[in-house]
Write the structure tokens for this entry.
Amino acid sequence: MSELLNAMNLAYNTTIKARARYELAQQGPDHSLPAPCEAVRLWHALACTWLLQSNKRFWVSIHSPAYPQGLLTLKDPPLILFGEGRPELLNARGIAMVGSRNATRTGLGNAQGFGKAFAQSGWVVISGLAEGIDGAAHAGALEAQGATIAVQGCGPDEVYPAHHAGLKQRIIQQGGLVLSEYPPGTAPQAGFFPRRNRIIAGLADGLLVVEAAMRSGSLITARVASELGRTVGAIPGSIHSSQSKGCHDMIKKGAMLIETAQELLDEVQASLPAFKTAVVLQEDDSDCHIAMNYSMDTDVELDEELSRVFQCLGHDAVHSDTLARQLGLDTETTLAALTELELLGLVLGESGNRWVRSNGVF
């Protein structure tokens, strides 16, 4: 494990300033370093134990032939990566999907639907295992029996949020990859997540923002991707939704307005690096042409009152009290009708007692 200790010493020795460590890394693997500090030796011991616990676990340094080439375009590429899963995905063609942790039901459905479509077309879905859009994107890729990479803002032995532990295991078991630049034993910290985002942008060949408020980490990820020359797209939403403001601002500034997965894939494919490999799952990629935000017509037979409520709802969330006033009904009757429509899968209840047509996303 002497090579691992040397690599970890370069990456984590805090007695050397970060810029100096990058300069040493550029000299190649034979650079001269001070002796490992106590913290590096502790992390090395934890890493050795973690690596030996599964044959799916590995590490790559910036000098390794297996290191993801896309990350070398970053100003500050990670000097070491710990992974669990399929290392060959590091240089596979991929689409990053990012967005709000506090996503709407429609946003979650779009993320899952697009994630599934990208995976069905043989692309790796890359995201951050976070609450909301990230988790839904991973889930969509898994639903398609596809490959997905989760980049963590903590050590590879940790998981955040904790309730995504099952999702993390599914990603590994179904042939995906969980990745971190932090050593085993590193708990999640707020400052790690913005750093994590540059890796998501660097690994990807294109990036899709599904939902994002104006002040959002997703917009930072999109900016990094754009600076790296990656194709960046955004899904538009309601003009009344705060979770769509960031996407709308991106589109105004030149990001692609994305309605179908194939639109983004066509653009990304045109500038795909030669070293990128495909993850072929199936020949049929017809789902990529489906617009995920389509209007839902139903063959369900509705009585007059349910039909009135359904027809009055659009694709912008509306409060039940507002809907009741528009229909001339009392709130109790309106809520009863909305509940019945939700059971039929025609509408979705959002936070704050707001309702919207389901768009067919669930």
